[in-house]
Specification:
Layout (H helix, E strand, L loop, with lengths): L6 H18 L3 H7 L4 H9 L18 H14 L1 H21 L2 H13 L4 E4 L15 E4 L3 E12 L6 E7 L9 E7 L5 E6 L10 E12 L3 E2 L5 H37 L1 E2 L2 E2 L4 H30 L4 H26 L10 H10 L7 H13 L1
Parallel strand pairs: 1-4
Antiparallel strand pairs: 2-3, 3-7, 4-5, 5-8, 6-7, 9-10
Helix pairs in contact: 1-4, 4-5, 4-7, 5-6, 5-7, 7-8, 7-9, 7-10, 8-9, 9-10, 9-11
């Protein structure tokens, strides 16, 4: 397996690293404290082409491969996971789904604006009673001939208030179960569409996570993605790719924490020498470095599988499962290496530890990834 990067991929990686250092780092602690959405930073990401990285240039995208996207996600996530998840949802869950399965009319109307960052998109699957069990949709889209009437509530929606376009998964025919589910494009401002309060979260506090309420919202049939009943399959196919993005986010969080811990261990002295010279610390760093490299190879493999057109359900699930585990374990150890300083905000690692936890939950919990993996290996 050759994961050597092309010159173009190296440039993308460096551009993302530079952006993270110059644009995201200066106020990242303040944004986390205030739960402030990085509006200006996201706008600049769009101008640089990071919000539609894999979209065909004819729709306003950058036309890059999945590995380039993963490289950018890793670099941004080292500094600010709140901003990287905004980018991830826009790229993986909205742009990809629209380009892959949308009509030409839908692409021209919505994708061209979302891919350039002119507007943001959101993906709406989870509900109070349908998180991991995505088949149990309570949100309904009743067929009225030339339109649907949408009713229900969606929870934990990233870009909840900042998006302009929402892909909503809803049940049209309960008798058909998952084959009766549809994916609908809903615009902000539609009559009966209400955005609930912002969630007060443990981590990724700069991203805006909201509940969404739909009360007799009229959605034209032209806004349905795919054939009638394609919604559940659309959601699963889209999430399979989204997991690669979140795996890259987890990888970046882990790598960012490791880099801070390594630097700190060479500066902090105890018992007359830098703490990196103590075996207890040196062995922690050795484990962190090894785990991160293993996670990186899994993430890169999943990205390559997607780029090569091979099935990436298994590799994507393994990458997310392992990278999120490494993110959690590495950030905890990074705080430990920093000692008391790790418990205060100025050293960044406590924020990375809080941000790491969500990577084991959203876009399929670690338990769901194990279901995907076990089904793949036991079939």
């Amino acid at each position: 397996m050759d994961f050597s990067l092309t010159e173009e991929q190296k440039l993308i990686q460096q551009a993302a690293k530079d952006f993270a250092q110059t644009e995201l780092l200066p106020e990242v602690i303040e944004r986390d404290d205030a739960q402030r959405f990085p509006e200006e930073e996201v706008k600049k990401l769009g101008e640089l082409g990071f919000l539609g990285m894999m979209v065909d240039p004819k729709y306003g995208g950058s036309g890059l491969d999945t590995l380039s996207y993963v490289l950018a996600m890793e670099e941004l996530s080292k500094i600010d996971a709140s901003t990287s998840v905004i980018m991830s949802v826009n790229n993986s869950l909205v742009c990809w789904g629209l380009e892959k399965f949308g009509t030409e009319e839908q692409k021209e109307k919505y994708l061209t604006k979302i891919a350039t960052g002119e507007i943001l998109g959101a993906f709406c699957l989870s509900e109070p009673e349908a998180g991991s069990d995505a088949t149990s949709q309570r949100t309904t889209a009743i067929d009225q001939g030339d339109h649907y009437i949408l009713n229900g509530t969606k929870n934990w929606i990233t870009n909840g208030s900042s998006a302009s376009v929402y892909i909503v998964i809803a049940q049209t025919d309960k008798e058909k179960k998952h084959r009766g589910i549809n994916a609908l494009i809903v615009e902000k401002g539609a009559e009966g569409f209400e955005i609930g309060p912002k969630e007060n979260k443990l981590g990724i506090r700069g991203s805006d996570t909201h509940s969404l309420i739909f009360n007799d919202v009229k959605v034209p049939k032209s806004n349905r993605i795919g054939e009638d009943g394609f919604g559940f399959k659309f959601a699963m196919k889209t999430l399979a790719g989204g997991r690669i993005g979140i795996a890259a986010q987890a990888l970046g969080i882990a790598a960012g924490a490791y880099e801070l811990a390594l630097k700190y261990s060479k500066e902090r002295k105890a018992f007359g020498t830098e703490i990196s010279n103590h075996q207890a610390i040196a062995f922690k760093l050795a484990d962190m470095h090894t785990d991160i490299q293993a996670a990186r190879l899994l993430v890169y493999q999943a990205a390559r599988d997607k780029d090569n057109g091979t099935n990436y359900d298994l590799s994507g699930a393994m990458a997310k499962l392992y990278a999120s585990k490494v993110a959690m374990e590495t950030t905890v150890e990074a705080v430990q290496i920093h000692g008391g300083n790790g418990f205060v905000k100025d050293y960044h690692v406590e924020r990375l530890m809080r941000d790491a936890k969500i990577t084991q939950i959203y876009e399929g919990t670690s338990e769901i990834q194990k279901i995907v993996i076990s089904r793949s290996i036991l079939q």
